[in-house]
Amino acid sequence: MSEHDTNPYAPPIAILSDEEQYANEGSFIPGGRKVPAGNGSAWIGSAWEMFKQSPGTWIGLFLVFMLIYMVCAIIPLVNMLTVILMPLLMGGVMIACERQRESGELTLGDLFGGFQEHLGPLCIQGLLTMAFSMAIFIPIAIIGGIGVAIFAATGTGFGAAAIVGIVLLVLLALVAMFMLYAAMWFSPALIVLQGLTPFEAMKASFAGCMKNLVPGLIFFILSFLLM
Prior knowledge:
- By secondary structure, the chain is mostly helical.
- The protein is built from 11 helices and no strands.
- It has helices at 3-6, 18-25, 39-53, 55-74, 82-103, 113-117, 119-154, 160-185, 187-194, 198-210, 213-226.
């Protein structure tokens, strides 16, 4: 037994949770933690401060990012691989952010850090994203197609029931898309900065997003207005 257990006059001991300990150290918190709603705007402010340190390099990095992605997107067959390309490029952006945070330096070559250091895991994350997308939307498309065929065959037209069914399918697709993007959002960063496996990264990303729906919504609204 400790002194605190046997001595009623011993000073109280503050026991920090693992989450608080990780937060104080600025380290990765397994499962994520909930943050105040104001962080939704604070994230944009922090990004602006990073951008001001190397505005020219960040603009160049963004232009190279978009050029690579757009060229691949318009090439037949190659455009099917853009879902794999995106995690690789985003992994490079996360590496660039971390290196600037640590050393204050940033180069265009950092964009390709994902290809150089974490090629396999980031490609697997892209393949998982593709697989989950197909698992979500192929059944929805099949159900929608069957419904349209039934109404066309019976000649009943699109009445109230059909409209309700279409609305429900659209809502289901939106919810599924949101859940998929929640699993994707932090995955590249967790893979390249924390060394998580692709599945672990997607699971942790989803948990973090679910715990921070309000600040995340504020962030996306402000980002949309700024763009």
